[in-house]
Design brief:
single chain; 567 residues; alpha+beta; Immunoglobulin-like; 5-stranded antiparallel β-sheet; 14 helices; 37% helix; 29% strand
Length: 567
């Protein structure tokens, strides 16, 4: 009898039998079938699954929510049983596989790892640990449910994804009580290191996370990557600074460092867009009464969607009145415009033909019209006016230059005092301008600051801006245009188009000035800033942006000679 009792109370790691592991994988396959029938593709079938979080529509909630609910119910049901059976131990690995396939992504994998550690840290076969096991299952499920709910109402933005790296509640829970049960020294050391790291992240990156969550939606991919990769290293290297200045000081460091990712506002050697090039046809002349033709090459350079271009060709002849008039040719055998859909780095030959032309020398023109878009963003520094004045006085007392620029350099170690705008490449060049930095904001006052956008035709390849389809101004959601109706050169209205979390988007009501642009055109607005835009740090960093959608016309010409029959 005593031998039976000792066997029942024996503490062993609780990983289920290997032969039973087909069950969760069967569930995963069934889930995929259900998803396929409902028209939803999970992480397992998407190329970008590792960069996205799901649970954003009702179909996904049915597939994930039903599985999670069943697991919670069964886990609670287990608590009323006197003994634990092997098949009920499969609830957790089933949950593991189900969520991994449905949610996907490296952040989800981190949390699923915490869930999987339950099997290695919770002893099975002893009734004393049923409550701990059930608690781990429920906490793991709630971890994903709460995350999914936040995604539903907040959106799958970088704020939540970054925060998930730090706030891994179930992993901390599992490691914490797992340290009490494990008998193997090596595993206890690993658990201790994991738990210690998590505690360090929570304690010392909490202020950083607060700043990160508040501003992450105003940065681009480069700054985001830099911030996630180096946040832990930055915090470690500034550990002594934390002890001296507290969370306020570390928050300031993080606030400034995460936006210093840099970039270039210079056009690359071959910017994105559509290229139209003539093809050499040799010196052979054409004869009167026969067909005349010329060829050109279309090539697209784009990282996103294919470029759709409308191509026409024509030449000019002198009419009876002595005026030049256009004579349309056929493009690839079609009268009028021919449409080409061109993916990146592919080439399409365009053939222009005329049934016949009189004797003489001709210039044959190819026109390719296509829609394109460009974005630009620029970093701003904001400061409390009183703090800025105090900093300037401090520099004066030391006999140093007390300019605002020198305040950024000398006191806050910011070398990039006049940030260059960063814009996407293409046929046009964008420029953004505002007041001198830092912009000082007084308590209880409205600080007006300029927002100026200049668009210029930057290609020397014979192109022009045919028209602007839309121009959107994006400013932080704590900013506002002074009076959208007349604070800009053109009427502007707030819109949900081109929505971006953390920003207010205004759409300009364009007029005839924004058509047939050969050189440059600009628009200027006035922004209202209040102390609500300031962080509890000496330097606040914000971004202003613009999005421009336009139609561009590329032109290329070639020369041909038509000789008479008797020549």
């Amino acid at each position: 009898m005593s031998e039976e009792v000792s066997k029942s109370e024996k503490v062993e790691p609780g990983f289920p039998l290997a032969g039973s592991m087909w069950v969760p994988f069967l569930v995963a396959v069934l889930l995929m079938i259900v998803e396929g029938a409902m028209g939803y593709q999970s992480w397992a079938f998407t190329s970008d699954g590792l960069t996205k979080a799901w649970l954003l529509n009702w179909k996904q909630w049915i597939t994930v929510g039903s599985g999670i609910s069943a697991i919670i119910a069964l886990a609670v049901f287990r608590g009323f049983h006197e003994f634990v059976s092997d098949w009920k131990q499969l609830f957790l690995p089933t949950f593991f596989v189900l969520v991994f396939i449905t949610l996907g992504g490296p952040i989800a994998l981190l949390h699923i790892l915490g869930t999987g550690l339950v099997f290695f840290t919770t002893p099975m076969g002893n009734r004393s640990f049923i409550k701990e096991y059930n608690s781990a299952v429920v906490i793991s499920a709630l971890d994903f449910i709460i995350f999914g709910l936040i995604l539903m109402f907040w959106g799958a933005d970088k704020t939540m994804l970054a925060a998930r790296y730090i706030w891994n509640i179930n992993l901390m829970f599992v490691c914490g009580y797992g340290l009490q049960f494990q008998q193997k020294g090596a595993l206890k050391v690993v658990m201790g290191i994991i738990l210690g790291t998590m505690v360090f992240l929570v304690v010392f990156i909490t202020p950083l996370t607060a700043s990160y969550i508040k501003h992450i939606n105003t940065v681009g991919p480069a700054e985001l990557t830099n911030s996630i990769a180096f946040a832990f290293l930055d915090t470690s290297s500034n550990f002594m600074n934390y002890l001296k200045t507290g969370s306020h000081g570390v928050s300031q460091l993080f606030n400034m460092s995460q936006y210093s990712g840099g970039g270039s506002s210079e056009e690359p050697e071959d910017p994105q867009g559509l290229y139209l090039k003539e093809l050499d046809q040799g010196d052979r002349p054409f004869r009167t009464g026969s067909k005349v033709y010329a060829t050109a090459m279309l090539e697209a350079k784009t990282l996103e969607d294919p470029i759709v271009a409308q191509v026409i060709c024509y030449t000019t002849m002198e009419n009876d009145l002595g005026d030049e008039e256009a004579v349309m040719g056929k493009t690839n055998g079609n009268i009028g415009a021919t449409q080409f859909t061109i993916i990146s780095f592919s080439q399409h030959t365009v053939r222009c033909s005329f049934d016949q032309l009189p004797e003489g020398d001709y210039e044959i023109y190819f026109n390719a019209t296509f829609d394109f878009a460009a974005e630009i963003r620029m970093k701003l520094y904001l400061m409390d006016r009183e703090r800025l004045l105090n900093d300037q006085v401090s520099l004066e007392n030391k006999g140093q230059d007390s300019s605002s620029e020198n305040v950024l350099k000398r006191i806050y170690d910011i070398d990039d005092t006049d940030p260059e705008p960063i814009y996407t490449s293409g046929p046009i060049k964008l420029q953004l301008g505002t007041d001198n930095l830092p912009i000082d904001i007084g308590a209880g006052t409205i600080r007006q600051s300029q927002y100026s956008l200049i668009v210029e035709n930057d290609w020397d390849k014979g192109g022009r801006i045919d028209k602007f389809n839309n121009i959107y101004i994006k400013i932080p959601d704590t900013f506002a245009l002074s009076n959208p109706a007349d604070s800009c050169d053109l009427p502007a209205s707030i819109t949900n188009e081109q929505f971006e979390k953390g920003f207010k988007t205004y759409k300009l009501d364009l007029d005839d000035r924004f058509t047939n642009i050969k050189d440059a055109i600009g628009v200027s607005c006035m922004m209202d800033l209040t102390s609500n835009s300031l962080d509890p740090t000496p330097i606040t960093i914000r971004y202003v942006k613009a999005y421009v959608d336009y139609t561009y016309v590329m032109q290329e010409k070639t020369e041909v000679e038509v000789e008479g029959r008797g020549t």
